[in-house]
Amino acid sequence: MGCLKLVLGILGNATAVALFIAPLPTFWTLMKKKSTMEYSGLPYVCTLFNCLLWIFYGMPFVKPHSMLIITINGFGCAIELIYLTVYIIYADRKNQLKVLGMLLAVILAFTVVAVLTVTVLHTHNSRTTVVGSVCVVVAIAMYVSPLSIMKLVIQTRSVEYMPFLLSLFVFLNSMAWTSYALVTKDIFIGIPNGLGCLSGVAQLALYVFYRYLKPVTASLESGDKPLVNNVYVEIGKSNEKLNENKDSKSRLINQDGNKPAN
């Protein structure tokens, strides 16, 4: 059983690394353009908060024998801090202050959870229950963005908003950690990753269904644009395409006086 736990934990770490490094091409683009464009810093702040909580959850005085949870979330914290540093460097003043404010809120929230856990709770069971519950709530909240993207895929009948490899790794990562949770009987790891499995299956099913259908872009409005996060990093490119299409249509309207047919 211990060997199986180790193998599943390593698989979970490996697939999670793939998800954490997924935004690298996006940030390379930001650095080349020296602008954050339409990208939001919120998802990276949320991911940092999520990783901090899971590191604390894996500490020996909270959940003993959870080193694999600490290692992958430690890596996640490091890379999210790099992403946020790059974002702050190239963001305008307004977005810089917004991200710094969110980071301050994350630090305060994490400090409160950590201090209360250590000073008020004195057993492993009570600490695991409280910290694990907080981790579950934050992790589930982060699934809101994929749901909005799935809705957008249905509306536009286009899978360009939901890259296949990222959806696949979401599924594989969730499967690995769900299996890990079953082996270790850890409900707090099992709940969010079980939901992640369902989300991954739904995403892959949508990809298969809409892969070869003709996209519908006429119904997209600015309010329908997806929120770019640390997983669905390619969405920003799609936003740029939409903007280019809108600019092109606007020029045709100005020249001909008529709205071009889609």
Please tell me about this protein's structure.
- This protein has 262 residues and is mostly helical.
- The protein is 74% helix and 0% strand.
- The protein is built from 10 helices and no strands.
- It has helices at 2-20, 24-33, 42-57, 67-90, 93-120, 124-141, 144-156, 164-184, 187-210, 235-256.
- Helix 4 packs antiparallel against helix 5, helix 6 packs parallel to helix 9 (187-210) and helix 7 (144-156) runs parallel beside helix 9 (187-210).
- The radius of gyration is 21 Å and the shape is globular.
- The termini are far apart.
- Residues 218-246 and 248-262 have low confidence and may be disordered.
The number of helical segments is 10
Secondary-structure-based class equals: mainly alpha
* Helical amount: over 70%
Q: What portion of the residues fall into strands of 2 or more residues?
A: under 5%
CA-based gyration radius: 21 Å
Shape: globular
Give, in order, the helices and strands.
HHHHHHHHHH
Average of the residue pLDDT scores = 83
Query: Care to count the β-strands?
Result: 0
Distance between the termini: 59 Å
How can the largest sheet be summarized?
Answer: none
Q: List low-pLDDT spans.
A: 218-246, 248-262
